[in-house]
Amino acid sequence: MKILIFGAGVIGTTYGWQFAKAGQNVSLLVRDEKKAIYENGIPIHCRDERGKKPQQEQTVFKPKIVTAFSPEDKYDLILVCVKSNQLETALPVLAKNCGKADVLFFQNNWWGDQLIKGYLQPEQYFFGFSRIVGGWRNGNTIECVIFGNSVMSTLLGEANGEVTPRLEKTQALISAAGLRPEVSTDILSWLKYHYVEYIGACGAILRAGSTRAFADRKEAVREAILATREALAVCRARGVPMKAAPFNLKLYSLPLPLLVWIGQKQYQEPNMQSFFEENLRQGFNEIADQYHNVIGEGQRLNAHTPILRGFEPFFLQ
Q1: Of 17, 32, 70, 258, which sees the most CB atoms within 10 A?
Q2: Which segments within the chain are labelled E, that is strand?
Q3: How many whole angstroms from its chain centre is CA 31?
Q4: 99's torsion region: left (phi>0), alpha (psi -120 to 50) or beta?
Q5: What residues contact residue 21 under an 8 Å CB cut-off, 6+ apart?
Q6: Are 288 and 85 in contact (CB under 8 A)?
Q7: Whole-angstrom Cα distance, residue 312 to residue 314?
Q8: How confident is the model at residue 90 (pLDDT cuts 50, 70, 90)?
C-alpha cells in the first residue's frame, strides 16, 4: 500500500515507521524548511512493550521525504496527524491534492466532521486515533512507547458508524503492523470524550508549576479529577452518550478518594511526567485551544464548570 503521512510528529512518524517495517511504501510530508533535517533519517528511541518483556530499540527511520503531493502520486491512504488546531489550514491542501486516496483523520476532534465536510465528500474520509503509541520529541529524536496493555489500541471508525471495505482494509494494515486495531461504531462520540481527557490534569499541572509538584500534591490531583468530571459533564450536556467514552473515563464515577489514590500513582510515573511535560511544552497551543473550546461550550450549555474555569489564567499566560 502507498501511504502518505501528513504530519511528521511523534504519532505520524511512529506509525509510518511501523508500516514501513511491515513492508508498506511510506512517504513523510514535511515543510520545505524542514526537509534537510529529515533527509538523513529520523532517530527513533522506542520502548516496545508488546512482547512478554519490554524491548528498547534505537534506529534511524528513512522514509521517502516529500514537501508536496498531488493526485498524480496515487496514494492509497493519507494519514492526517496534524494537531487539531492546524486542521483548517490542512484541509484545502488535502482537498486539492488527495486524489482518490482514503483520508484518515488521526487527531483530537471536538467538532466531528463539521469543518471537514466543507472540503471533502463523506466517501473520501474516515477517522481514527492512537492510544497504543505515546511519546514526545527530544530535539530531532522521536522518543516513543508502544504500549503492551491489551486495552490500548488504534481506534478506527466511519462517521456514520458503518463497517466499510476501506475500514476493513485499514484494519488489516494496522493489524499487520502490530498496532492493535479496534473498530468503533460511534467514533465521533469517542473522540469528543477523548478531547476532554487530559485538560483537567493539564490545568492542574500549570497551576502547580510542574508535573512533579502536581503529582506530589494530593489536593492538586483531586482538583484535576474534579475538573475532568466537569469536562465530562459538558460532553453529556452536548448529548454525547457516555457509553462511547474511552474505558478509563468511565471510571470517573468511582469514589473520589480511590480515584485520587490511583491518579497520584499514575502521575508519579516518570514516563507519565515526561509525557505531560513535553506535550505541554511542544503542544501548548493545541491544548489551550481544547481548553477554551470546552469551557466555551460549557458556558453555552449552562454546564457547571467552576474548577475547570479556574484554570483559565494559567492557560492565558
Answers
A1: 17
A2: 2-6, 25-29, 42-48, 55-61, 64-66, 77-80, 102-106, 125-130, 133-138, 141-146, 154-157, 181-183
A3: 21
A4: left
A5: 177
A6: no
A7: 5
A8: very high
Q: Enumerate helices (H) and strands (E) in the chain, giving the number of each.
A: 13, 12
| Number of residues that make up the chain | 317
Nearest residue to 15 via CA among 42, 36, 55: 42
Establish how many alpha carbons lie within 13 A of residue 244's alpha carbon, considering only the half-sphere containing its beta carbon: 22
- Which residue ranges form the domains of the chain, and what is each CATH number? 2-184 (3.40.50.720), 196-316 (no CATH)
Q: Cell numbers 466543507 label which residue?
A: 118
Residue 34 has pLDDT above 90, yes or no: no
Dig out the grid coordinates for 92 from the structure: 484545502
For 123, residues 6+ apart whose C-beta sits below 8 A from its C-beta are none
Q: 255: which 3 cell numbers?
A: 469514589
- What pLDDT digit, counting tens, does each position of 199-239 carry? 999 999 999 999 999 999 999 999 999 999 999 999 999 99
**Cell output for 152:** 490500548
Contact 232, 252 (CB under 8 A): yes
